[in-house]
Design brief:
Length: 117
């Protein structure tokens, strides 16, 4: 029984198509794998811009001292704090830089409701 085959050049062209597609797929997979890191970097950049006042036109806002918003300021807590986001962010001495709150290195604690009274 005769079985018709395309010319060798055509056979090579047909075989090359899936190889090209898989190579393109590998490139796409590599780019997709970078997305979580790119998002993390982007979020950090936006947070930094927001904290430093560069995200918005700060000249259109009045700067108000933090004490105008606080009823009571107490030094510290004996509650253990960690970088794991559990409940309440804890403002520490390293978070105050040049009179500005820097929230890029916050720690968190689980605090009892009576702590807020």
């Amino acid at each position: 029984m005769d079985f018709p085959l395309p010319p060798l050049a055509e056979q090579n062209r047909i075989v090359a198509k899936p190889d090209e597609a898989f190579q393109h797929l590998d490139t796409l997979k590599a780019k997709l794998a970078r997305i979580p890191e790119l998002l993390k970097t982007f979020r950090q950049a936006v947070l930094t811009q927001a904290v430093t006042g560069k995200l918005i036109n700060s000249s259109s806002y009045n700067i108000i001292p933090l004490e105008d918003f606080l009823k009571d300021i107490k030094y510290g807590t004996s509650q253990k704090s960690d970088y794991v986001i559990e409940d309440v962010p804890v403002l520490r001495i390293p978070n105050i830089k040049d009179g500005i709150i820097d929230s890029t290195d916050l720690k968190y604690s689980i605090l009892a409701k009576k702590t807020f009274k």
